[in-house]
Design goal:
about 220 residues; alpha+beta; five-stranded antiparallel β-sheet; three-stranded antiparallel β-sheet; 7 helices; 8 strands
């Protein structure tokens, strides 16, 4: 992924890579949208900082790292992240355009067939600000249920061992229901993480990859 050029004003991100790699970016965004995760929520479930997926989708950091792919497969579970057959050429010039209109974020990737002409490789749409369509009472009920679940896990000693965000998310879905939003868990965890004596949990980064949560000793 050499020679990346960025125009932040109009959201265009350009880099050279293979059709296979472009297919992986497409499947990353497609799986994320179809799973209902925002970029920040997917980064959280992987144990990474909130801009991690945004930077990946904007071609600023690579995705085809074995550990990254493994964590994406764990989150998406049955989601496919590879397209089986492409040519072996590794230096197509691609450009990703990202823009927002009326509550929808658009992703369009094109590749250059010459110096000025492009062909659209994919175009995807994502509804943003979904919580605007949920009533405040439902959000509050979900928030209280999540906080009670986390306190119950703390009292039962689950946080005496490291827990990942993905493990906690799956526990929340099992105990509260599939309709629970990831951002509710994110917010609830924030209130429980901090310095010893102030909050019960601390956030620790694993040697090789993302953040995990554990009880203060």
């Amino acid at each position: 992924m050499d020679n990346v050029t960025t125009n932040p004003v109009i959201g265009k991100f350009r880099a050279e890579f293979s059709m296979d790699y472009a297919g992986t970016i497409y499947l990353l965004i497609l799986n994320r949208i179809s799973s209902g995760y925002t970029r920040e929520e997917l980064a959280f479930l992987m144990g990474k900082d909130e801009n991690y997926i945004k930077d990946m989708e904007e071609l600023k950091i690579p995705i085809r790292n074995l550990e990254v792919m493994a964590h994406l497969h764990w989150v998406f579970d049955q989601g496919k992240l590879e397209i089986d057959v492409f040519d072996s050429r590794s230096a197509y010039l691609f450009e990703m355009s990202i823009w927002e209109e009326e509550g929808v974020r658009y992703y369009q990737m094109e590749y250059f067939i010459n110096g000025v002409e492009t062909i659209v490789f994919f175009r995807l749409m994502e509804a943003i600000n979904k919580d605007k369509f949920r009533d405040a009472e439902t959000i509050e009920i979900d928030r209280l249920a999540t906080e009670l679940l986390l306190m119950s896990l703390l009292e039962e000693g689950h946080f005496k061992k490291y827990c990942t965000a993905l493990q906690l998310w799956r526990c929340a879905k099992k105990n509260i229901g599939d309709g629970i939003r990831v951002n509710i868990l994110m917010q609830a965890l924030k209130t429980m993480v901090g310095k010893k004596g102030v909050a019960p949990l601390r956030k620790s980064k694993a040697r090789s990859f993302g953040y995990r949560y554990i009880q203060h000793k």
